[in-house]
Amino acid sequence: MKTKRVVPILVIMVGLLLFAPYVARLQAQITAEQLEKIRGRKMTAAEVREANDLMRKWMRYYDVMDNRRFHIKGEVVDEQGTRLTGVTMWVSKSVSGGWWQNNRDIFRGEFTINGTFDVRESGCESVSIGFEKGGYYRQSIDFFADAKANTREVQDKIMKGLPVEEPMVGKEGLRIVMEKKGEQVHLVEYLDSMEYQIDGRGVILDLSLPTPEAFKKVPNVTDAKQLPAGCVYIIAEKDKTGKISVMDQNKPGQQLRNLIFPTKITMFVNSETENEGFILYEAKNALKPFHEMKLAPETGYQKEITVEPETWIRIMHRIPVPFYFKSNNRYGKGKILDCLIEKGGNSCKFGVVFYLPIKSQGGRNLESIYEL
Predict the structure, then answer these.
(1) Which residues touch 289 (CB under 8 Å, ≥6 apart)?
(2) What's the pLDDT tens digit per position in 95-153?
(3) For helices 6-19 and 32-39, what crossing angle results, to 10°?
(4) Closest to 168 in 3D by CA, of 47, 65, 21, 35
C-alpha cells in the first residue's frame, strides 16, 4: 500500500466506525454505496477492496492485542532478602469490552504463597498482581506498559499480511520486596487554601488551632509581627501595574493549556527560631511521596519556599510538590497542590495540605498508613 493512500483510507475507516455499527461487529462487507456516502464521490472497485482489506487488518490487530498471554514468575522477600511465607497474593486481569465499551476487570482470586509465585493468564489486555502480609505494606504491580511493548511489531506484521500469534508477556525473576511497617502515628490533616490579595489581606494557616479554625483571615499578611507565631502564609510577586504577576504563556516551556499561574509565590513560616520552616523532598515514587516521608529531618529547615514556573508545570501534570516542615517545635509534612489567580490579578488562592502528628505523639516520626 502506498503511503499517500493511507490517510484517505483511514478517514474512511473512522467514518465507518462512527456511522456503521455493524462494521464493528465484524459483520458484512463495506459496500461501494456506503463508502460513497462517506467520501462524497464515486468509489472504484479497487478502492472498495482496499478499504475492506484494511478494515480486516485493523480488526485482526485489535483482536490480537486484546488477547495477550501473560507468564509472570518471581519471589516475595523482606528487606533483608529472605523469602516470606504466608503471603496473600491476588490476581486481576483487564479484558476488552469491545467497541465503544469500557474494559472489564476480572478478579482471578486470592492465593496464599510461600516465597514464590507463578502466574499464567490469557485472553486479556493486562494483568495486575498484589501482595499482602500482616505487619508489611502491601505491594501491587500492573503489567499494562509491558503488554504494550511489542505493539508496533505486531501491527507491522498484520499490515504486511504476515501471520501473528497473540503476544506473550513474559516476566521471570521478579523480586517483590515487602517493606515492614514501623510505629504508626495518627496524622491530623490541614487541607484548604491560603490566600494573598494585593492590598495585603489574606488567609493564613495557624497550625496551633484545630483544623476547622486553622485557616483564618488576617488584615495584612505582609506584617509578620501581627501574625501568630509559627503560622504559615504566602506572598505573591507583583508586576509593574501592582497586580499579581502571571507567567508569560508565550515563552517556551510555559504553555500551560491556557491556565494562568503566578510568576512567583513564596510560602513562609512566621518563626524567629532557627531551624524552622521547610525542606523540599524529592520522592522516589512521585505519586506517593508521603509513604516515603516517614522520619522528618532534624536540621536543614528554611523559613520559606519559593514556587516558580518549573514547579507550576510539574503541578499541572498532577505531580505533587512535597515538603517537610517544622513550626513551633512540631514536625510535619505537606505538599503544594495548586494555585488559582482571581479577580483580574487582584488575589490568588494557594492550595496546600499539611499533616502533623497529634500533639500527644509528637517527635519526628511521621509514618502513617496514609496514601498507600
Answers:
(1) 281, 283, 320, 322, 335
(2) 876 655 677 788 888 999 999 999 998 878 889 999 999 999 999 998 877 766 667 77
(3) 100
(4) 65
Residues in the chain with pLDDT values less than 70: 1-28, 65, 97-101, 147-150, 249-259, 370-372
How, if at all, do strands 202-205 and 215-218 pair?
antiparallel
The amino acid sitting at 132 is E
| Residue 340, strand partner residues | 349
What is d(CA 85, CA 25) in angstroms, rounded to the nearest whole number? 48
CA distances from 194 to 7, 210, 236 (A): 51, 16, 11
Grouping H, G, I as helix, E, B as strand and the rest as coil, residue 72 is strand
Helix axes 45-65, 32-39, angle to 10 degrees: 90
Taking the model in full, what pTM does it have?
Answer: 0.69
CB–CB of 338/260 below 8 Å?
Answer: no
Closest CA to 146 of 52, 62, 46, 68: 68
Q: Are 351 and 339 in contact (CB under 8 A)?
A: yes
Residue type at position 212 = P
The CA distances from residue 83 to 29, 59, 80, 138, 175, in Å, are 57, 45, 9, 15, 10
Q: Do 179 and 136 meet the contact criterion of CB atoms below 8 Å apart?
A: yes
Residues 249 and 259: beta-carbon distance below 8 Å: no
Residue type for position 182: G
CA distance 218 to 192: 16
